[in-house]
Predict the structure.
Amino acid sequence: MFVFWSFALLLIDAAKGEEICYERVGCYTDDIPWSGTPERPIKRLPWSPERINTRFLLYTKNNPNNFQEITAVEPETIDYSNFNASKITRFITHGFVDQGEENWLSDMCKRMFEVEDVNCICIDWKKGSRCPYTQAANNIRVVGAEVGYFINTLEARYGYSPSMVHFIGHSLGAHAAAEMGNRVPGIGRITALDPAQPYFQGTPPIVRLDKNDAAFVDVIHTDSAPTIPYLGFGMSQAVGHLDFYPNGGEYMPGCKKNIISQIVDIDGIWEGTRDFVACNHLRSYKYYSDSILYPDGFLGYPCAGHNLFETGTCFPCPQGGCPKMGHYADEFKNKISSGFQKLYLNTGEAKVFARWRYKISVTLSGKSSVRGYINIALYGTGGNTRQYQIFQGKLKPDETYSNLTDVELDVGTVTMVKFLWNNNMINPTLPKLGAAKVAVQDGENGNVFNLCGSGTVREDVLQTLTPC
Ligand SMILES: *[C@@H]1O[C@H](CO)[C@@H](O)[C@H](O)[C@H]1NC(C)=O
Ligand SMILES: *[C@@H]1O[C@H](CO)[C@@H](O)[C@H](O)[C@H]1NC(C)=O
């Protein structure tokens, strides 16, 4: 009994944390669950709003290149800006060590202006993000409160409905949504771009982003390997209405390149060094940005796991279609079921990251088996693809070889297929093989195109197949 009571007292003592209050944005404690838990061992209180200096940088179609800085503390700055209260507003927030003037945020706004007319507000909280991680992870609460205050001001001043707000947050920025969502009911949408894992994964919903923070919450996971020992920075836990795991959500293609090849990338040296340390983590916003211009190039296939997705169990898209990862994910919001939905897709390894998934089945013709591989290129109303390897191994006449392939464009109606085989060595018997039939199934709608070929060809000689 004595042991029990002293243990309980110890807990109460630990739970009685400090509290700090700020004008306008309220009080914050370091009590459980904010600190003193296995997930959040180090106690920190958020810095003051003045020290974090959350800034709101407005871009519109009328000022796509130069922001107007607006603030809810002096709301006349909003009156005099290009902010238009009859349009929806998308907020974009950076994460740890990053800053709101980084090109990726304003570039995302510019891409939006190519397809829609919105208020695009980049949130800069660099003064609160360039500090030890444990501090930044608490500062994000004040950032969320500031966004909440901003939205409340819009509502009071213009009758602006929170349902017209879309909050896009990367990394730690995604968790600002927790404080914002707790303060402003009825936010339209939150998109979390690889929400940060340390100090958030496994914590109660009040601490982190969760699906009750907005009417619709979509999440892109790109760096969700465990932080220890793999240094994964993003959450693996599903926390939205739709959770997308591109390439399985842990390791992104193209992220193994050395620093030199990153520097020659169009984004330059700074982007190169950023990529070197956090390539997987940064992919989330790059995919989102590409999705604005390639709506159907990021279809998420509902599936119980990435392995099942890779083996074709979850192909093609179900009757109701596949949700789109990224900008257009909310087109699916009226079709979401209860519970968490996990979605899988593959991307390219450099931009443009969009990919379209096809199942390609090749039935061979010929006289005898030979070792080698099969390549296929698709031609259609949407363009033609490069050659993709479908199979490698023993090639037997009359056998059918199938493979799921993520190609670089939407082929549309398949009008022609080119077949090529090779065994990479000089074979004095000069064997010949052909493709008697190729069936191409489009993942988006399940449509199958059948193409037929006649005869056989030597290795490295292209055979053309046309609709049967
Ligand atoms: C705001 O947007 C609406 C709808 O697009 C438009 O009719 C109106 O003229 C805009 N207001 C201003 C001040 O530009
Ligand atoms: C599909 O082709 C790729 C590339 O050759 C190969 O790695 C993969 O194993 C193939 N999948 C199947 C199911 O044969």
Remarks:
- Residues 389-392, 403 surround 2-acetamido-2-deoxy-beta-D-glucopyranose (ligand 2) (CB under 6 Å).
- The chain has two domains: 16-345, 356-467.
- DSSP finds eleven helices and 22 strands in the chain.
